[in-house]
Structure formats: C-alpha cells, structure tokens
C-alpha cells in the first residue's frame, strides 16, 4: 500500500497538459503519452482536474454528467487505458469530485427548472425578500450576487460560484445518496484517490444577510459538515482502506481541519487550506495589488504545521494549483535568480510535514502568463473581475495590472514541453496562449540539464521516500520573527533535518542557532553550499542539512 506521507501528488490540468489530436485542447491520451515523464519525476499520484461532461464554463468544475467523460477529453476507453498504463508504472489516479454544485446543464437541474419537485429539492431555491431583493446579500465567489432569479417560480437559486453552477442541497438525503453513487462508480473503475472540490461549503447554515461580509460565515464549515463527510466516507471511499482523499477547504479554520484530516480516518486523509496564499490579498479581497507579507506567510505556514501536528492531522503542502498564480513569479523571481528562487521555494514546501503537490510546469519553473489583452484571458472569474474592477472606477490599465498578478489563467497556460512552436503542446491552435518563454523554459531542456529545477524536484520527491524524518518527523520552526530567513527543524527517532532558506534576493549572514556538528548538506541550490556555524547565505540560497 502506498503511504501517503511518503508520496507526492502531481496535479494535471488536462486541458493544458498535452494535446494528441491537434484540436488545441489537452486530452486523456495526452496524459497517457506523458506518463513516463511523470514517472521520471517520481510522483506517486496524478490528480486530474475534472474531465467529465461539462459545458466548460468553469473548465469542467461545472459538471453536467458525473458518469461520462467529456468528448473533448476523450472516451471511457481512453480513461481505462490511462488507468492501466498508470498502474503499470506504479502511479495512481486521483479524481476531482465537484459536489458542492453541478452545472446548470445537469439533468437534475434541468428537471428542477421544469418544475419537478424531486429535483427542485436537489438544489437551493428560496423566495426573495419582500422588497424585491434576493433572499440574502451573499456574493458569488466569481463576482455579483450569489442568487439567480427564476421567473417561472418567482424564486431564486443559490450559486456560490458562477450562475451556471447551482449549489446542491446536501440537506436532502437523496442528494447525498447520488453523490455516494458517483464515488462508488469511480471506485469500481479502480480509482484509489479522490479530491473533493470546495467540500467544506456543502453544509449551508442560516440563510441570513451578512452585515459584515460576503456571506461566507453562513456556509463555510457549516453545521452538518462533519456529519456529511463522515457519512460519505462510511458509505463510499472509507470502505477501501487503500483510498486516499483530500478536501479543498475554502476559508476554513484549523480547528475544523483537525477533524477533517484527523488520523482516525473518519473523514478525509488530508486538506488543502489557503490562508498562506492570501498574504498578497487585502483580507479576503484578492483583486488588489498588495506586496506579499513574508512575516504573515511564515506565521501561517508554521501555525498550521505545528497545530496540525499536535492534533495528529495531515496537511496537503502546496504553492501552486490551477487557481493560483505561478509561485516563482509570486514569491521568487523570474529574472536573474529564476532557477535559485524556484528551487528554494520547492525546498521550503517539500520538507514540511504533509503531502506535497506539484502542479504541472511548477517543476520546470514555469512563470505567470504575461497576458496584456483581455482577449487572451479565458477564466470566467478573471473576465468578470476585469469588468467589476472598472465598474468600481479603476482604470483599464490598473485592472490589467491586477489581472496579471492574480488571474487564475496565470497557471493555465499550456505545459511547456519543448522549445518548438506552441511549446510542443499542440500542433493546432492552443485554447489559451502559450507563454513565449517556452523557448527557454521547457521540459526537454530541463531533462537534459543536470542542475535543472526539474531535477531539484525529482530529488525532493525521492528524499521524502528515503528519509523517514521528512515523512514522519516533528517540526520546530526556527527564527520565527526573522525578516528574511525561512528555517525549520524536523526530528524523528534520532534523525534531524535542518531546512534553511534565504527567502530573498539579498545576501544575508546568519548565526545558526543549532549546533551543526555532525550535519551534512544533502541538498542545496548552489553547487558549493556548506554547513557552517556562521552562514553566509547567497540570494535565495537554500540548504537541507541532515544528521543521524
Ligand atoms: C475550486 C476549484 C476551482 C473552481 C471552484 C468551483 O475552487 O479549484 O477551479 O472554479 O472550486 O468549482
Ligand atoms: Ca485534444
């Protein structure tokens, strides 16, 4: 059985991974074709974002049919082939289950709109206020009201995301049964891992106006959330001890995560939380330009590390995914120290306590998209906010500047395989522009170079398997208040690991607070890094020291 604490998950956004038929969209066969690449990197699992039948308003997070594959991505045979070929290589597939909402094209929603009471009760329909306003003042996460008016019922339905993503009513036991059946169907296909999309939003509480916010306090980590997760576990994936699960937890609290991801296995194996990726927001507001707060970043990561460890709960570790900008552009630098900073960031995250996730292209140091025109953007959230920002009075160029930093499309540009046209992603016209830097930043190049970012990730993934201290050790933050250093200690059965990172492009000197006698350097991002009591750390220098 695969031990998820020694494992690494590689995330694939199928649409942008590899296109085998020249239609400009990545597909399942493209993933099969590239399995050897993933094997070479060393990942144990592949999480694929949704490839089910969908109108693709939110790139598949608007599911129309959970039991079938969108023809744009391939067929069930393609899926089965991928599954067989992955298994041959010891790689397991993690499927993305979107159960907070469906697409408005779903049969269930269509029947609801036609007035079928059974299906109306699959969703959340409410009367508006007497003054003609929607039932509550809640905002959609993609902008605008979270309620859409349906004239034939004189009622509104709730959509926490796009208007084409109506929220499911989990308080209806029939909905919960449907969802269990979907999980069981894919278990029947041999799937051994699941990611649950925004799963801590499924239990809605009171439907009241939020006087101080956008409504999230009424549905985040809601009243029955633990009960519903425990039930889903008991009725589906929990019946196979080999299955691992991860929940995407939107604006969650650590206290809830102790339970979501507790070692008792009653709910999930691990959780994604996002507080560390809001350090360049203003509170919860992402569409602003605010420099990243390093002190906050460290504090949040360390608090979650020690807090979850104390409760024997498990974190997913990540900087990147299909909703986040590229980390090297965000916390590192794209210029002179591109390689050093990308490696340093990788080391910081991979040596923590948890299961690391690598998002396609992160292992190459892929950068933000660099789009300059709205016609290049594809993401519904970005396109909505381009308008909303200007409605709020921002100039077009300020709106662009914000999109360039925060848009989800930053991570959705096609995977850069080679220096050829379209980065070798497609022979056709890609659905979203390829970053011109594919000429220099690409897989072919990095596989050929011994000291590439790719090989650094490869080493980190292997180290988690070789060193128990990385997989199982305790964690102690070092120099919590230091304005430039990100350092911590891991300990396990007499083994000690020190992870020392200069987070910035300026040199620094550090008097190491640990006695370095007996430590050797097992990984760094400069050819000649040494374990010295007084450390002179070069720009973004990163060292992993080990003693047994
Ligand atoms: C999650 C997904 C995101 C999607 C949203 C709605 O946050 O990661 O891509 O838009 O849920 O399903
Ligand atoms: Ca294709």
Adjacency order of strands in the biggest sheet: 11-10-9-5-2-1-13-12
The proportion of residues forming helix, as a percent range, comes to: 25-40%
**How many separate helices?**
16
Low-confidence spans: none
Q: Which of globular, elongated, flat, extended, rod-shaped describes the shape?
A: globular
Radius of gyration: 23 Å
Give a count of the beta strands, DSSP E runs of length 2 or more: 20
> Which structural class do the helices and strands define?
alpha/beta
Strand content: 15-25%
Taking the alpha carbons of the first and last residues, their distance comes to 27 Å
Major β-sheet profile: 8 strands, parallel
Query: Can you list the ligands bound to this structure?
Result: alpha-D-glucopyranose, calcium ion
Mean pLDDT: 97
Assembly type of the chains comes to single chain
